[in-house]
């Protein structure tokens, strides 16, 4: 088919008016006509490549609405940990399958998905969306680091054994967050498959830096409630990010998630240390949990590579990349849609290393095509291809 629209975004920029795209039956883009095409079918609104959701937790989909808004991160995490198993297996399965299908309907073509166990193997076998599974490793005691790592490696191996001829299935073992992973565990994770990207929940709450600077604050409450003895932990006197970045191999690609409290010095430290760093924004989850947003203008001014995530249904009302960038537009109206759509598509594809197939409208690629209606009021995404 050949289609055109009011505006077409190719993943990086707006294409000239009149541009028409030819798409084969299997979804591959076979031609781009910059001066239009007489047989092109006109579609109202905006066309973009399929969205990339860099950060999600499909395994937590059954937690929708369970934790109230604006509790702050530490009570939120306690709520998730103590209540995530108050559900039947059937409730969990139904909720995550529904979440997967909704993301697909919302125009998402690839997802970076956190997994603590193997619950989401069944979702990857649906083979609609490309999936990079971030197998999350948690363990704050140095002494248990080898056991915690071995558990995660067992989970990783089950994901790695899964193959598809239709979609990309990738995986890596990743640290959960600076306050839940010891230095010893960071190092074990970092040595595993060092070319694969890792993600980390970064500076989502002021309590995280506070704990690293002088070991005070609400992280202690979290560790106490989990009966974790943190007596071995010595504060560095620096922010969490400035501390743990030195534990990572500079060649390891890293995507930092949330960054609600990240400052310019943190960013500069990462840029000086890491060859490839990416900054994933999940604004609706930040508003849900902490009711604050990252310093997005600073990240942009300093040349950070930004991408978008939805986080989970435990901390969000929906799983929609478009809803995330609409929130950014509302709070930072100076950011152009051209830029926001790039974060939502080609930047995410680059982070998940899937840019050879998705994230941009280019001949030979198979990005899926999404229609956006009412971009400037209440944007709504519909899948076209
Ligand atoms: Zn998360």
TrEMBL record:
Positions of the Amidohydrolase-related domain: 46-372
UniProt entry tagged with the keyword Calcium: no
InterPro entries registered for this protein in UniProt: Amidohydro-rel (IPR006680), Metal_Hydrolase (IPR032466), MTA/SAH_deaminase (IPR050287)
GO molecular function, a single term: hydrolase activity
UniProt keywords, alphabetically: Hydrolase
SUPFAM superfamilies tied to this protein: Metallo-dependent hydrolases (SSF51556)
Protein name, UniProt field: Amidohydrolase
């Amino acid at each position: 088919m050949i289609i055109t629209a009011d505006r077409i975004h190719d993943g990086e920029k707006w294409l000239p008016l009149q541009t028409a795209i030819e798409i084969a039956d299997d979804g591959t883009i076979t031609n781009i006509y910059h001066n239009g095409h007489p047989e092109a079918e006109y579609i109202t609104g905006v066309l973009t490549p399929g969205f990339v959701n860099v950060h999600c937790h499909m395994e937590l989909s059954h937690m929708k609405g369970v934790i109230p808004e604006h509790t702050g991160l530490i009570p939120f995490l306690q709520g998730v940990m103590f209540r995530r198993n108050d559900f039947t297996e059937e409730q969990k399965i139904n909720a995550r399958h529904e979440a997967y299908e909704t993301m697909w309907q919302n125009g998402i073509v690839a997802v970076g998905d956190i997994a603590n166990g193997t619950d989401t193997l069944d979702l990857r076998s649906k083979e609609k969306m490309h999936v990079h599974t971030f197998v999350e490793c948690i363990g704050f005691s140095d002494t248990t680091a080898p056991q915690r790592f071995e558990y995660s490696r067992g989970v990783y191996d089950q994901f790695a054994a899964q193959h598809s001829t239709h979609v990309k299935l990738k995986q890596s073992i990743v640290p959960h967050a600076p306050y839940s992973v010891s230095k010893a565990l960071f190092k074990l994770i970092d040595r595993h498959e060092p070319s694969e990207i890792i993600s980390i929940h970064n500076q989502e709450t002021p309590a995280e830096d506070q704990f690293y600077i002088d070991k005070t604050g609400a992280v202690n409450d979290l560790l106490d409630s989990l009966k974790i003895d943190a007596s071995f932990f010595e504060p560095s006197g620096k922010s969490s990010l400035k501390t743990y970045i030195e534990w990572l191999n500079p060649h390891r690609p890293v995507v930092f998630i949330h960054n609600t409290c990240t400052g310019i010095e943190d960013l500069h430290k990462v840029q000086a240390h890491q060859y490839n760093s990416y900054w994933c924004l999940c604004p609706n989850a930040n508003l849900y949990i902490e009711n604050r947003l990252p310093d997005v203008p600073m990240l942009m001014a300093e040349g950070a590579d930004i991408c978008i995530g939805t986080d989970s249904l435990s901390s969000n009302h929906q799983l929609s990349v478009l809803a995330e960038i609409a929130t950014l537009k509302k709070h930072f109206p100076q950011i152009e849609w051209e830029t926001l759509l790039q974060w939502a598509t080609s930047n995410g594809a680059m982070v998940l290393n899937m840019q050879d197939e998705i994230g941009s409208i280019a001949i030979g690629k198979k990005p899926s095509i999404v229609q956006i209606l009412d971009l400037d009021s209440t944007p709504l995404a519909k899948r076209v291809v």
